[in-house]
Design brief:
This protein is mostly helical and 277 residues long. It has one domain. 77% of the residues lie in helices and 3% in strands. It contains twelve helices and two strands. Strands 1-2 form a two-stranded antiparallel ribbon. A hairpin with a 3-residue loop joins strand 1 and strand 2. Helix 5 packs across helix 12, helix 7 crosses helix 8 and helix 8 runs antiparallel to helix 9. The longest helix is centred in the middle third of the chain and has 29 residues.
């Protein structure tokens, strides 16, 4: 998965990246539909729906602009309108992850139809695809910097959890996660944040300020944990260990990118609102 992302990130332009992420998002939708309990034919229709919604979102927002300018020239140059549309769709993702998902994890409802389960894929996956395109448009470093938040939180959280873990975070959803692991991951993110704001990203993050940038990074780290827990809850409902078998030994796209799907829309939104983008 890492090699594929690296090739897509550095080996193709913005158009190629947008298409590559569209493919991954489509695979994620296919896996999500399976977790929701859809039949094969329904999974195809559901996957197509998510892909079409991503394309329409890109056309509406004008990203990537080089693609849109060829398809709908009237959108080219409408930067103010495009920015508001991007913020609107990223805001939908933010509301989903900051309002709907916490309530879901708190209650863990049992009587939920397959249609409702899959409907949640739209505010989860479409803003995530848009965020990858928006962040990539600001340079590969911007996107990698945001994605690194998830990698650091996940890797260090796992290490601290194995070393110090005593208190379960969400035993009904993910018995392996502990509060010690989460706090250890956030501590490492604080170090990462200090390195960013005092070093390579100092000029870019200056509009957010030191305290604002660090608070935003820690918040995104917490959301990444939430994304992982939410996907775990879907797998528990479906009675499966992995969301798919695309990556032998590592599960599916949702297993690898669940936390990225939750974090990147909020990262893009925070960077926009803080004036960094």
């Amino acid at each position: 998965m890492g090699l594929v992302l690296a090739v897509a990130l550095f080996g193709v332009g913005e158009e190629g990246w947008a298409l590559a992420m569209l493919v991954l998002t489509g695979i994620g939708a296919w896996e999500w539909a399976a977790l929701a309990g859809f039949t094969h034919r329904a999974r195809l229709a559901a996957t197509l729906l998510v892909v079409v919604c991503c394309v329409l979102a890109g056309l509406w927002c004008g990203v990537p602009e080089s693609i849109v300018s060829g398809l709908r020239p009237e959108l080219a140059g409408a930067s103010g309108g495009q920015r508001r549309r991007v913020l609107c769709l990223l805001g939908v993702g933010a509301l989903f992850w900051c309002v709907i998902v916490p309530g879901w994890l708190w209650r863990l409802p049992q009587q939920v139809s397959s249609v409702v389960l899959f409907a949640m894929a739209l505010p989860a996956l479409v803003p995530a695809w848009l965020a990858t395109v928006v962040l990539r448009s600001q340079g590969a470093g911007c996107l990698l910097g945001a994605m690194a938040i998830v990698w650091i939180a996940d890797t260090s959280g796992y290490g601290f959890g194995r070393w110090l873990g005593r208190h379960k975070l969400a035993p009904r959803v993910s018995p392996g996660k502990t509060w010690e692991g989460v706090l250890g991951g956030l501590a490492m993110l604080l170090v990462y944040g200090l390195w960013l704001v005092l070093g390579p990203a100092a000029a870019a993050l200056e509009p957010a300020g030191l305290a604002g940038a660090l608070a935003g990074i820690l918040f995104l780290g917490a959301v990444s944990v939430e994304g992982d827990l939410f996907e775990s809850s879907l797998k528990r409902r479906a009675g499966v260990k992995d969301s798919g078998s695309l990556i032998p030994g590592h599960g599916g796209v949702l297993d690898r990118l669940d936390a990225q799907f939750s974090t990147l829309p909020l990262a893009a939104l925070l960077l926009h609102l803080s004036g960094v983008l």
